[in-house]
Amino acid sequence: MAAKKGSKMKADIVIIGGGGAGLPAALAAYEKGSKALVLEKRGMVGGNALMAEGFFAAESPAQKRLLIDAKKDDLFKKALDYAHYKIDPRIVRVFINRSGDTVRWIEEKGIRFNRIAPFYPNQVPLVWHIVEGHGATLMKIFEKECKEKGIPILRKTRAKEIWVDDTGRVKGVKAEGEEGEIEIEAKSAIIATGGYASNKELLKRYCPEHLEMLEESGVPGMDGDGLIMAMELGADTAGLGNLHMVGPAPFPQNWTIEAVAGEPYCIWVNQKGKRFIDETITFNVFEAINAILRQKGRICFAILDNKMKEDIVEHGFIRGCGELFVPRGKKVEGLDKELSRQIDKGGAFISESLEEISAWIGAPRDALRETVDEYNVFCDRRYDEIFVKDPQYLQALRIPPFYAIKFSGALIGTMGGIKINYRMEVLNKADDPIPGLYAVGADTGGWESDTYCAVLSGSAFGFAMNSGRIAAENASDYIQGKR
Question: Are 227 and 252 members of one domain?
Fold first, then answer.
């Protein structure tokens, strides 16, 4: 749908962003009897949800069918413990409490969840709900339903300003589309623009740990529009600077090579040629990045020998790189070609000599040999005396050629920004709601700390959908005078 230059429109609720939070918000508003309108600055909807694999839920119909005991109370406490209480318990509580119902809501649209997968080994309880086609499938379903229900989605239309009256109440949104400026009169606005991971200026301003070597692997266009508009209206911030990061991520980024670097049989060394962590941390990429960023220059190397490489070719990856990119347990064809490409680009090195590899990574010539010799002794004894690595992943490196893969981390998105309460209302500096203004998903803070919670696997996508529904319902109550 397109709007003409200088046109004026009306809606009850303007939803700024058509992604994993915005589209559920539009549908929830419709269900509450409100007229919603969605602004999407890109030509397609979906946002970061297009890259999501699964989402978090507790006590869902699917979990009950599969006899998975995922108690909301237990997971609420685990979330707080994981974050060391750096998050807002009321926001997390309402998210978790609503999450199971959102699975019910989705299943009523024709999707049936038959798979709730572990994100890391021995995860209990299972909470990561996977649908065939992943997040992109859900976005297509939401988009189709918006069309069927007559909910306008203005593509290639960027919100420029949220305007308020003299009392500070939301009165509408000014936007710019392909045909020019548009004014939309509305009683409420929901900010769902996906954070600011694409805005280097904001990253440098608010994220002291953001470094240029971090690969940006999220969907482009997350420019912080919502954060900027909210702050212009006096909104406070929460968790500003928290990043959704993962590691390892090779230079240059290559999903197959990333999977190789993330295999738990490898050893990880820093630029001194020294191990610095139990490499099975790779099963939790959100914690692995913390160990990686502690190393000098934030650059590390995965070291493997030819036997490890041949095992990958024949039996597939143990950890892999997600179902969307490099699945686990499948024979890997063309690995030598991918490694050669990475070597040509300067992101990997192969040699019969550990001393040559040590020199390539910038360490003293004998450093890597000493590290590997020590590690091989641990493997022979089936006990890692330094990091206590699980013995099942202790495999000596003795069969040349040896490989080294250079890596750091990747930036998926931001996890903080606009301060909200458990109704998803935007709060000002006095901690009071800005009347009619709501924010959801990655635009907001308070639901995640500085390390993404793997225990609530898929919480970013889950929070997006649930916060979108919650915001739309509360916005509808607000404009209908029920609050």
Answer: no
